[in-house]
């Protein structure tokens, strides 16, 4: 299959890659761009470890074609921190002990970010439902939910009009 030049905006930077049209965003992020924070697991959009943001929406990069990301802003876990300062979600996960093995955490944090951007004041039940597509075998979810709620409270104090 012939390769095509594709320009992708990932974490605020433009990258030109030569790829086959059937390559997934997951493959390109990890293989061509070296962004290994996005994990590979089920390859069937069942576990959420490959979650990234495309124009702010959480998508499963294992099924999302890289060609579909042209002209869109892609954010991976590597792009969430700004100028060396962790995002409140990243800090809350670390401070709250929500990170154990860490394998699922990048996708979970990005799913939580997309959710909090749309729903800044969630309840515990809201967070559990929003993260239902992100599986974790280590934490038991309680600390993850608590971390998301803590980040929501912090973000609420930093939003304009708060």
Summarize the structure.
With 162 residues, the chain is an alpha+beta fold. It is 33% helix and 15% strand.
What is the general shape? globular
Roughly what fraction of the amino acids lie in strands? 15-25%
Helix run count: 5
Q: In sequence order, what are the helices and strands, one letter per element?
A: EEHEEEHHHH
The radius of gyration computed from the alpha-carbon positions, rounded to a whole number of angstroms, is 16 Å
Structural class: alpha+beta
How are strands sequenced across the largest beta sheet?
A: 2-1-5-3-4
Distance between the termini: 53 Å
- pLDDT averaged residue by residue: 95
Q: Portion of residues in helices? A: 25-40%
Largest sheet: 5 strands, mixed
- The count of DSSP E runs of length 2 or more, i.e. the number of strands, is 5
Low-confidence stretches: none
Describe the structure.
The relative contact order is 0.15. Helix content is 33%, strand content 15%. β3 (51-54) and β4 form a beta hairpin. The protein is of the alpha+beta class and 162 residues long. The longest helix is centred in the C-terminal third of the chain and has 17 residues, at 142-158. It contains 5 helices and 5 strands. The mean pLDDT is 95.
Keywords:
162 residues; alpha+beta; 5-stranded mixed sheet; 5 helices; 5 strands
List the helices and strands and how they pair.
Blueprint (H helix, E strand, L loop, with lengths): L3 E7 L2 E7 L5 H8 L18 E4 L2 E4 L12 E3 L12 H8 L9 H14 L5 H7 L11 H17 L4
Parallel strand pairs: 1-5
Antiparallel strand pairs: 1-2, 3-4, 3-5
Helix pairs in contact: 2-5
């Amino acid at each position: 299959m012939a390769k095509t030049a594709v320009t992708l905006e990932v974490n605020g930077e433009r990258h030109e890659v030569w790829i086959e049209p059937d390559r997934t965003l997951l493959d390109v992020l990890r293989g061509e761009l070296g962004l290994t924070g996005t994990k590979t697991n089920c390859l069937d959009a069942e576990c959420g470890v490959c979650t990234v943001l495309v124009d702010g929406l959480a998508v499963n990069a294992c099924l999302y074609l890289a060609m579909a990301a042209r002209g869109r802003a892609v954010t991976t876990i590597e792009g969430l921190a700004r100028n060396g300062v962790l995002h409140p979600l990243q800090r809350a996960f670390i401070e709250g002990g929500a990170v154990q093995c860490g394998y699922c955490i990048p996708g979970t944090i990005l799913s939580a970010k997309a959710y909090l951007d749309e729903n800044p004041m969630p309840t515990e039940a809201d967070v559990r439902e929003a993260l239902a597509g992100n599986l974790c075998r280590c934490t038991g979810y309680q600390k993850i939910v608590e971390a998301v709620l803590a980040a929501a409270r912090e973000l609420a104090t930093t939003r304009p009009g708060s």
